Amino acid sequence: MINTVIIEDEKPALRKLERMLSNFPEIEIIGKIESVEEGIAWFSENEHPQLIFSDIVLGDGLSFDIFEKMPTKGFIIYTTAFDQYTLKAFKLNSIDYLLKPILEEDLLGAVEKFKSFIPASNTTGSEDIKQLIRKEKSTLSRVLVKIGYNLKIVQAQEISCFFSENKIVYLQTGERAYPSDFTLDELEDILEEKKFFRVNRQFIINSDYIKNIHTSPYYKVDMEFQPQEEITVSRDRVKDFKEWLVG
């Protein structure tokens, strides 16, 4: 049997996941956790499970807080409505990252991936897991931004560009610029490469919003939506930029 714990604070989502996991007779759910506080207490008092299904955004924080305080050797499959936490998830023994609503085929794939690790589970460390996950690179499809006391979901296809200003990275849409929790280096790793390109140290642009490209005296890009500052292509990026445009 595969000892399994579920971390989920939404009752309907918990019931749905339990129902879906009932199709796997080898999985035995030994614990259900609804908060960061409860999770820290559970992992400090119980033997850690082989497999963990964990939502990320909980009522009292992020589930990452649990595993940062109570490191686990168990494999984690994250289940969440937001994919902006992918990079951090992979640093905490994540073997898969399922976006809600979870599809049957995606859950099956995640469980099968876990099973493939079982024979070497005694010798597989977190660094090995990270290497395995990097081979199946995820792309960012939506971003959660905070506006005052409210949260807003911005689809990646709505973003004209990302830019850095005063050590904060913003995403630009037709409405306005929103601050994000990413660095441009992180975004380079998780944005769709065919759509997004980092033209310099300050800007990543979306090809769908390019209006015009000036080539003299230097490469400059006009975007449909952008901050006031002009967007230039670094000299050492021009060759890659031209290849990206036609790729």
Automatic annotation (TrEMBL):
PANTHER family per the UniProt record, alphabetical: TRANSCRIPTIONAL REGULATOR, TRANSCRIPTIONAL REGULATOR-RELATED
InterPro entries: CheY-like_superfamily (IPR011006), LytR-like (IPR046947), LytTR_DNA-bd_dom (IPR007492), Sig_transdc_resp-reg_receiver (IPR001789)
GO molecular function: DNA binding
Pfam families recorded: LytTR, Response_reg
Name the record gives this protein: DNA-binding LytR/AlgR family response regulator
Keywords of the record: DNA-binding, Phosphoprotein
Organism: Chryseobacterium lathyri
Residue ranges of every copy of the Response regulatory domain listed in the record: 3-115
Record PTM 4-aspartylphosphate, positions in chain: D55
Keyword DNA-binding on entry: yes
Annotated ranges, domain HTH LytTR-type: 143-247
